[in-house]
Amino acid sequence: MSPGPASVLVMRQTLYGGRRIAVLSILGIASGLIAWVVSAALGLTAVIASSEASHQVIRVLGAAVLVILGARTLLAARRARQAEERAEGTESTAGAEGAQGPDGADGAAGAPRPAAPKAAYQAGLLTCLTNPKVVIFAAALLPQFVSAGKWSGWVGVVYALVWAATSSVWYVFLMAVLRRMRWIYERPAVRRRLEQFSGLVLLGFGLRLAMTTSS
Length: 215
Hints:
Blueprint: H1 5-41, H2 44-50, H3 52-94, H4 100-110, H5 117-129, H6 132-141, E1 146-147, E2 150-151, H7 153-180, H8 182-185, H9 188-211
Antiparallel strand pairs: 1-2
Helix pairs in contact: 1-5, 1-6, 1-7, 1-9, 2-3, 2-6, 3-4, 3-5, 3-9, 4-9
């Protein structure tokens, strides 16, 4: 498994949404992989992979999804910083009477709001469905399960489940490692920097994909 947009998305969801939000994004990614297997069974994957126009549409959509996710992540980091500054200002003006309240709210103010469950699943699904590399991978490997022009149903189902499961194992492992490192990113300043980093990486993936030309 090579790190890519889906890995960065899972990292982002784990850091700021917790286990549940990260798992929902992983389920979205797995659903996207299964959807591509179904598309291969219907012959759509081969058409998309061989059609320059279709490939370009997938590429542009994928770039747009990553740029939007990256921009939203950077905006969340900016809002978190503004919330921290407001909390610090309130603490400095409140004096001794307000010292306890702001301290209790500082961590919450500095943390970006996690994605809603539905949005987390959709982010994973769209990231997978609009990834041209996934399309090429499916188009290259799935034809071996087609015999005499007929789709080997059970073999295809097993392949879809294995593909989704192996990918999910990697993402769950990544989530577990990050969960072990919570003591590092629980601090608001560290959390905000990581938010900015993940946003820039997603934005970079999107811009790189947008500027990629077919060979």
